[in-house]
Specification:
- By secondary structure, the chain is an alpha+beta fold.
- It has two domains: 50 residues, no CATH class; 90 residues.
- It is 45% helix and 12% strand.
- It has six helices and three strands.
- A three-stranded antiparallel sheet has the order 1-2-3, covered by helices on one side.
- Strand 1 and strand 2 form a beta hairpin.
- Helix 2 packs antiparallel against helix 4.
- The N and C termini lie far apart (66 Å).
Length: 173
């Protein structure tokens, strides 16, 4: 199937159980169909050079290599303070996520079931619902960053562990 994004045609089809989305680089629908046919035939013949599979890091590797450098202490002299502030809230959950079994999974193999198991395991360690939900929010942000940075194609849905207890706001009298 070809479809248009802006002025360029893209192709979408399934090969070996995997959806392939690829730009044809063409503005003509006829030429785009020819490019799609060539791509399908090359894949069928085993010429996978077109779609080389990137090595997907594990969650722990991704945290260590891509997230931790962004949450390190800011270098105020180089003007990094504002950029660092955006990632500071992630710090508290990085170690539990890296050391748990979910940290050993490649990012593209993490499913909603694995995430649910992580939440259950953390609750079994007698952590509060708020703490578990905070870690799940961090995991959700990490996976969305992986999608944004083109490490993985999509991120799984993450359900929170439950309702956090209501806290009454403190009012000054």
């Amino acid at each position: 199937m070809i479809y248009k994004r802006g002025s360029i045609y893209w192709t979408k089809f399934q090969h070996a159980g995997r959806m392939i989305y690829k730009s044809t680089g063409q503005t003509s629908s006829t030429k785009a169909r020819q490019v799609e046919a060539r791509l399908r035939s090359e894949l069928a013949m085993g010429h996978y050079g077109i779609l080389e599979r990137k090595s997907i890091p594990t969650l722990a590797q991704f945290i260590r290599e891509r997230i931790e450098p962004k949450v390190k202490e800011p270098d105020v002299e180089n003007g990094e303070q504002r950029r660092q502030k955006r990632f500071r809230w992630l710090r508290t959950a990085l170690k539990p996520l890296s050391t748990h079994a979910i940290g050993r999974l490649p990012l593209d193999k993490i499913t909603s079931e694995h995430i649910s198991d992580y939440g259950i395991d953390r609750e079994a360690e007698r952590l509060t619902i708020g703490t578990v939900n905070r870690e799940l929010r961090v995991l959700r942000r990490i996976l969305r960053l992986a999608v944004e940075w083109n490490v993985i194609e999509k991120s799984p849905k993450i359900a929170m562990a439950g309702n956090e207890p209501f806290r009454a706001p403190l009012h000054k009298v």
